[in-house]
Amino acid sequence: MHFYIINFGYLILFINCIVYSKNYVRADRSFKIFAIYLLGTAVIQFLSKILVEVDINNLFLSHFYFIGQFVALNLFFKSLFQLKAQQKIANYLLYFGLAVLAIQYVLQPEAWFRFNLFEIFITAFLSIVLAAMHLFNMLTSVKKFYYCTIGILFYLFSSTVLFIVGNLTVFLSREYQLLPWTLNASMVVIYQLFILFEWKVSFYNQKNNTLL
Amino acid sequence: MKLNRAYETEIVAAILYTSLFFVILSIGLIVFFYYSRKRIIKNELEKKDLELHFQQQQLYAVLVTQEEERKRIAQDLHDDISAKLNIVSLNSHLLNRPNLTISETEEITANIVNLTSKALESTRRIAHDLLPPVLDKFGLHAGIEELCADFNSSKSVKVVYENNITFDPADKSKHLHVFRVLQELLNNSLRHGLATQINIAFSQEETLTVCNYNDNGCGFDASDAQNQHGLGMKNISSRISFLNGVINIHSEQNKGVQIIFKY
What we know:
Structural class of chain B: alpha+beta
Number of helices of chain B: 6
Number of strands of chain A: 0
Strand content of chain A: under 5%
Distance between the termini of chain B: 81 Å
Order of helices and strands of chain B: HHHEHEEHHEE
Number of domains of chain A: 1
Strand order of the largest sheet of chain B: 1-2-3-5-4
Shape of chain A: globular
CATH architecture of the domain at 135-263 in chain B: 2-Layer Sandwich
Number of helices of chain A: 8
Radius of gyration of chain B: 34 Å
Largest sheet of chain B: 5 strands, mixed
CATH class of the domain at 135-263 in chain B: Alpha Beta
Helix content of chain A: over 70%
Strand content of chain B: 5-15%
Oligomer: heterodimer
CATH topology of the domain at 135-263 in chain B: Heat Shock Protein 90
CATH superfamily of the domain at 135-263 in chain B: Histidine kinase-like ATPase, C-terminal domain
Largest sheet of chain A: none
């Protein structure tokens, strides 16, 4: 069951990578950033799978995933903001997050070898702030990446808890060890489905329109 | 190191409930945004509809006024000028008649001169009604003074005009609107309000020009929508909106009218 869900998540991520790359050339900046984010996620998933196969600890990849996701979503939301002030806020949050993490890794290099709870918390929290800002902007304007933003909000809220208990899973018996990861895989599936739905609603027809 | 069974179950339950809590929290947030957005968009649409309706009404008022004005001009031309010119033409034909005595010729010529001067006077009056030349040549202040003098000359009303500011000649197009608004207000006071005393005062409030207008007529119920949407009032409000100004009308039955507009 666990591996079915994980593989299903991979499949949708793979589909999303393809459909988002197809529209890449003619798309605007935010779309491009989002497509690169999806590709990056897929690459990290693929690498972690390979490392498991050759029996190397792949936990260090999680840091690339969290920090990469944080930077990508930050740039993504920044490109969606119209107000200069909001763009500035996005910049400050990015610098703040990266600076704080850099300081932590200097002071605690051992954090590299386990789930870095502080990293998980700060990257998710700052991204949630930006996602909420974008949703707030969309209250009175046209929907742009509406379903993606909803998906991001949903996924960050739910998966952050599961990542934070990540270090605990080592102590659980076999029976329960995979439970948080199965839940997380389900959240990934829902998240990726939101992204696919966004493409269907906002970009699938757009392509047809430009052809006409 | 593995945990004991009971402890492990507790931890797993904690994990499950915490994630469930956050899932519900995120769904709650999303639903909240969804409904807020729907509501805000609905409100905006209603506001736009109202604005559109208001604009349509203004346009309608402008069209009706235009038609009425045309009708009035046509009537003036027909009754005053055409009629007189007809007689002039008739008289001119009479001059061609053979065997006219000198006295007859003189009488006809006098008739013609008399009627042409009357027709000329009528043309002047019609042109004056359309756009007072004083307003055009000497500006708003002189225009309003003349307007007040016209009303005062009727003896049924006393108009007092006070002005502490000088109108900028560069704002000529604005001044026409101000003039028309005052003309409409004066007409209303006289016709509907049966006022005997009217005060008009202009003053400066920072960058805004403020006009205070009040009369002692019978007033009207300002809260009654019917009074606010008459043709005259619509005209006034569209002129004020051309001026990017605001108008504040205060009136009660038998207590006259107090109007302040700023632009």
